[in-house]
Fold this protein.
Amino acid sequence: MVNFIWVGLTIIGLVFAAVNGRMEEVNEAVFKSAGEAVTICIGLVSVLVFWLGLMRIAEEAGLLRQLARLVEPFAKRLFPEVPSGHPAMGYILSNMTANFFGLGNAATPLGIKAMEELKRLNGGKAEASRSMITFLAINTSSITLIPTTVLAIRFSYHSASPAEIIAPTIFATACSTMAAIAIDRFFYIRRRKKEGK
Amino acid sequence: MAWLSLMSMWLIPAMIAFILLYGTFKKVPTYESFVEGGKEGIHIAVSIIPYLIGMMVAIGIFRASGALDSLVEWVRPVLLWIGLPPEVFPLAIIRPISGNAALGMVSDLIAVHGPDSFIGRLASVMQGSTDTTFYVLTVYFGAVGIKKMGDALKVGLWADVAGFIAALVIVSWMF
């Protein structure tokens, strides 16, 4: 699926550029985008190092395990394949907490750790497990309390009420998260039917 | 609003203080653990680079070639019928693919149409209603070496559609 989209975007773009005579812009875009990607990654180093370092302390102090135990009954229904008290659950929950407070940069390393643990649970296979798909579904639909960057832009363009979009944003993000959970379940049931279980 | 921004401001420092104090209390060698954990961060950030370059170059080509603009022209009648301003459509396409590109589009839409216009509000809500599906997928699966992603992409994109519809409905209804 990703292979298809990736090649599709590129080839369609190149064909359009040929027809529209925009090869110069495309050449520029190739190098500019590649540079932007590296800049993003380098920018991630600082945050990743700091948060992963801090989270190692939390992990060794047993904090993640305790957090997991606290919210387990709810999360267990979402991730039935993660055993009780497993560190994966702790990472999943702290990732959600970070996302909820708009700490996108803090959430990323936690999400990656959660994925690592889920992969270990799945026997180290290079294939996405059911729990991984559920985790991604919830993650990509983002449960954010305050959309800080958008607020900042609205402020800078002199909105009469920059904060008025907070309530509708919470509504929309709640809808997308609930939809994500429902769609994830739907696809899971469909997969099982296909496998004849 | 005041307490919300206060909370956002205090959350990170409070987390740092709590983890350090709790770690000390539990007799964790805090600084050594921090350094050990931090080393992992470098490795992860570097290993993401090829994933991001691949995706961002493809999107860059798609935008620069004018393919995106043509796509917008092509679907304009359908969009007007739904009630979605065609100007916002590229944002709906880019939002799941690139968070930074989408943020650029939101700033652009707000600059052109004004933050308190229908388009400005809709763009603001859409930006916050979902996360960057492709980015999350590439980074999370890429970092741990998942090659077969199953239904993850489909689920993520359908959830985005649900979020956009919710954004359109609530903004039309509220303002």
About this structure: The mean pLDDT of chain A is 83.
